[in-house]
Amino acid sequence: MIKNRLIIVFLLISNLVLTQNENDIRQFDKTLNQFLNVRDFCISKNGDEVFFTVQSPNQDISQLASMKKEHNEWSKPELLSFCDSNLYLEPFLSADENRLFFASDRPLNDSINVKKNFDIWYVERHNNDSEWSTPKNIGTPINSDLNEFYPTLSENNNLYFTLESPNGFGKDDIYFSKWENDKYSNPILLDKNINSDGYEFNAFISKKEDFILFSKYNEADGQGSGDLYISKKDANGKWKKATNLGIPINTNKMEYCPFYDENNQILYFTSKRSNINSRNFKNMSDFKKHIRESNNGLSKIYMVPLKIK
After folding, report:
1. Any idea what DSSP says for residue 179?
2. Residue 288: other Cβ atoms inside 10 A
3. Predicted pLDDT of residue 22
4. Residue 97, CB half-sphere, CA atoms under 13 Å: how many?
5. What is the rounded distance in angstroms from the CA atom of residue 307 to the CA atom of residue 207?
6. Taking a C-beta distance cutoff of 8 angstroms, is the pair 55, 39 a contact?
7. I need a surface site. Which of 123, 170, 186, 215 has the fewest CB within 10 A?
């Protein structure tokens, strides 16, 4: 009976995604190994601009950074100009690439010194060579006196995000808000094919809203810790039961913060995977390089070719 269930789960996953093996999964760019914690990633349509979060070891400091590709090489990481002493994380670039959404605990305005809970904010620019505006709070009905995290938008600006609410199924759940008449509708809790009485968070919505990638924590069918899951819509536009992306993408460590490049069929995600091995070291520089550049259990950005059928 157990064997039959495993075969069914495998077939479900095979019908949704196609990946290869552990060797296909690699770090996005070794430049980022200078940071102890890197998470939350998005990339422009042309693949020439990326945004991500850099953090201190215990996440007491969290800032947004970016890099641009110049002459086929990534530039040095730069902090985004609007970041200050508050916490900033989870960037997401709009379809026209002139609006950047993120989560922050910054006060509602610069005249207030008391931090707010986490809200969804955005900044704007005229083009990718211009400066970002000062942050703007997305406001109600999205933001509340609860914590809102991880904004992600479909091509028609419908918004999906994580909300910590006592009215959800669990502590963290994924909500949806429709963009209509130039404003957002009241958030709707996604059903139990997505959410559960556990933790669901860090959703990525596809351009056409036909699939969603997200994280679940310590699920019975998981590899351990956080795992990435996928759900697709059925013929009636309803979400199907989410399935685990499986090994080798998921490990017994934390996998989270997915971003999918639909044009190039590449999945980017954050992982604390670890397969570091000891060896003989030439000197201290060799030792430090090996520790820093290996999959060492620290939060890093990874990428893998992934065909979503």
Report:
1. E
2. 11
3. 83
4. 14
5. 15
6. yes
7. 186
